[in-house]
Amino acid sequence: MTSTAQPSTANANPNAFLAGDLSIAWLLAAAAVLLQMLTNARYGYFRDELYFLACSDHLAWGYVDFAPLVALLARVSRVALGDSLHALRFLPALAEGGQILITGFIARELGGKRFAIFLSGLSVLLAPVILGNATRLSMNPFEPLFWMGAAYFLLRAINRDQPRLLLASGVLLGLGLENKHSTAFFLVSLTIGLLLSPSRRLLLTRWFWLAAAIVFLIFLPNLVWQYTHHFPTLEALSNVRKTHKNIELPPLPFLRQQIMMLLPISALVWIPGLAFLLLNSKAQKYRCLGITYLVFLAVMMMLKGKDYYLAPIYPMLFAAGGVFWEAIIAARPRMRWIKVAIPAAVLALGVIAIPLDVPVLPVDKIVPYMQALGMQMSRTEVQDRGPLPQHFGDEFGWEEMVAATAEIYNSLPAEERSKTGILAGTYGDAGAIDFFGARYGLPKSISPHQNYYYWGPREYTGESLILLHYDLAEAQHGCQSVQTGPTLNHPYAMQEQHYTILVCRRSKIPLADAWSRLKVWN
């Protein structure tokens, strides 16, 4: 491996983050935010967003299937900006810009200058999985901020021999755990990376253990919630494994998906970046980051995790790849063509790939565009079927479902309507009723799915229920009589959203007694 320069003294200037070589990172970050804000209201609300919005009305230190931070962010966003699509997705757009900035900071700490920052930032900007995650509110666009922010302060601690900077990493990793529990695997991988590298000396400092204590204290409220609720997240994850809900990839297809989700041409950046961290003598003190990646990759393959679970770790590899190519060009003037060729290739292929992950096309043009490129729809869950890729398809059909439900509800006699609950089989249906329902005169929904289960059946007895996402045979088994309503058939909705709305009258078991039997955590 070709050697690279050490971080310059300018990199140690705490005020240098606003100027100099990092100006290109700020420009790329601004471009990312602008792209998201120009396109993120073209389709509709995503299934999980509707769920998070409902949870934002029930703030807690934990939820069945996710950590609590995203619900708090949804509440803050709604209070400050409203709940339009642009408002809801403003923070994810900013988070993508933040990822690009952190990538530039990491590249600089690794010894990179303008080209390294440009190449790595461009690669992050155009990585399909990162672009796609920023199009909607979820834990995913914020995850890299915590992981890579922690890596950045670790690098600063190494470069400046200031272990106290690990405290900042501790704060970020603690918040990362409150954002998404998979941060625990990154934390373990990072610790192993330190243990197996020359940076292991940091483990012997009091600052490392203070940082570990900070992580624990920040995560403690969610841990206490999990304990007092008998660890529902572990139960839900166990159900996912037992039912084989997710598509489980063998190692080679899993690695192939890593290359595809990051843009195939970008493998010319992040794979050399990984090699640089592991093999370059000048990067010996940064070896912990390369080992961290390998450990985390092995853990995710062993646990059959979804391919995109690794997305938050790649900015540091892109940063290292930028430093690698910058050093190659500096040492071999005849290879200066690389300075144009690789960024041009990343830009060209990245622009072509943008409509696959960002809603820039009219919806009826998505599939023809994929066919023209010879692309097939990729799935992460067995039931993800529909005319569009799941990340687009789950934005369609929700308000139409609410309108159809309202037709049935408003057609009921007033006396019956006052006793009628809307029982949704999934959190997507329940969240849609809760978000859109008020404008149609509907009450809030009830559901035994995920965290809705904890909110219970409220005052509804089962005397009259509108059933969403329940089979006719299942309804007939539990109800004295069942009336069929309209069948949902939105042309772009996912296949599972094509079902018949039912009306259940006089449930055979009082709803409060049946509630625990209805529970679905998956």
Would you kindly provide a brief summary of this structure?
This protein is mainly alpha-helical. The protein has 25 helices and 4 strands. It is globular, with a radius of gyration of 25 Å.
How would you sum up this structure, described in words?
This protein is mainly alpha-helical and 522 residues long. The chain folds into two domains: 9-356, no CATH class; 398-518, no CATH class. The chain has 25 helices and four strands. It has helices at residues 23-39, 47-55, 69-81, 85-88, 90-109, 114-126, 128-133, 143-160, 166-179, 183-195, 206-228, 232-243, 251-261, 267-279, 287-302, 314-331, 338-353, 366-373, 390-393, 398-411, 414-417, 427-436, 452-455, 472-478, 511-518, and strands spanning 420-424, 464-468, 479-487, 500-507. The protein has a four-stranded mixed beta sheet with strand order 1-2-4-3. The chain is globular. The protein starts with 22 loop residues before the first helix and ends with a helix. Residues 1-12 and 14-19 have low confidence and may be disordered.
Which class best fits the helix and strand makeup? Answer: mainly alpha
User: How does the major sheet shape up?
Assistant: 4 strands, mixed
Strand content: 5-15%
- The parts where pLDDT drops under 50 for at least 5 residues are 1-12, 14-19
Strand order of the largest sheet: 1-2-4-3
Give the helices and strands as they follow along the chain. HHHHHHHHHHHHHHHHHHHHHEHHEHEEH
Number of strands: 4
Basic shape: globular
> Helicity range of the residues?
55-70%
Distance between the termini: 46 Å
Nearest-integer average pLDDT: 93
List the domain count as a whole number: 2
